[in-house]
Amino acid sequence: MIIRLALHELWISFRLLVLLAAYVGVGATVALLPGPLSTILVRLASGAAAAMVVGAAIAAWALSRERTLGRAGWLATRSVSRATILVGWFLSLALVSMLGLLAAGVLGWLTASASVARLDAFAFAMTFGAIACCALALLALGLLVGARLRPSAAPLVAVAASVAIAGVAWLAAPRIPNPIAALAQLPELASPISTAVQGAGASLAAAAALLLVARFALDRVDL
Amino acid sequence: MLLRVIAGLSRADGGEVWIAGTHDPTAEGWGRRMAYLGPDPGLYTWMTPIEALHLSGKLLNLPPDDTARRVERAIEWVRISEASASRPMSRGGVALQQRTGLAAALIGDPEVILLDEPLRALEAHERSRLLKLPGQRRTMIFASRYPASEAGLVAQVAFLREGRVELIAPVGALDRAKLPLSHAGIAALAEMKAAGANGRNAASA
Hints:
The structure holds two protein chains of two kinds. By secondary structure, chain A is mainly alpha-helical. Chain A has helices at 2-12, 15-32, 37-68, 71-76, 82-113, 121-148, 154-172, 179-184, 192-219. Chain A has one domain. In chain A, 81% of the residues lie in helices and 0% in strands. The mean pLDDT of chain B is 84. In chain B, strands 1-2-3 form a three-stranded parallel beta sheet. In chain B, strands 4-5 form a two-stranded antiparallel sheet. Chain B has helices spanning 2-7, 49-59, 64-78, 82-85, 93-107, 124-131, 171-176, 183-204; strands at 34-37, 112-116, 139-143, 156-161, 164-170. The two termini of chain B are 38 Å apart.
């Protein structure tokens, strides 16, 4: 029920289209701009990272608006727990993001596989799966920010926090498994599947931890 | 703020809220026995009033047939026209949202209704009519910046200062003390009661 409400709210406020367009736009841009495989992968990786940051901003804005407009409060007074509201928004945003990422991945693969250099399809799919897990972590980060801040500040803080985390992860690669960096350097990686699995695991753990903190944050805020 | 704490929308600095012998605010506790209506109903304004009321019934786990009956009754009570009931609330203005908010609060047939500056967008006589709620065994608690506008609706007044209840008295006590039903009048009654209690304590000592 909350997922349907959240999806409808995203649709009616055009945020669903913005999020989908951010991901599909990455795939379309990569497909339309020809180049060598390494350039295609760098464009795909950096575009996916940018779309994930957009996702975090939309998540922060959406939850913050739900609080300040009193809608989360209305649901809470109808015996809907705050945790259910949070999970409902997370799942609806995750659904849209995964659809967008799937489209970007398919377009990216079609472009990359048409290049002269060979690319392992399974490694590409696994790395994109790990990127999807990263997207979930950034959505959770956005929801955490949205659980505390006002709509005017929440998206900006979510963008700043996401960029900072992405920057640190980029600089720390390969010591910290980073699926975005892995995608950009996919042909050179010695063990891409292992890197993808590690990156996915780390991202999912981060997503779970951030959601847990967001749940506590939402529990302590006025609705 | 106190009503928001009781409704579970704001967190108390300390203590627990006990209602009807339980401090469980979930649906299994007192969640469904109580309703809250604030100055802004917080409804999804892209919904029609009918959709919002059906959603309200669904969230309260009411059977669909029962929900349909209750929605019909509530729409009739708050006087939402057939045309307004089936178009998005965003097109109907704040008054329509407030009427729908009251109807949504009544859907679950709650025992306790918390009214925090409710229905301010409506005209005074219509507001009074709506707040004389149908049904038996209902307790309504108002929070109001304009107590005089609640005349005829309330049986008791309470005065809170710094988070503590200083006075709970029948409205008739204001009349007997020749005080108006206003913040100043209720505060003066609280002062008089406190002075009286201090005098009795001093005499017994």
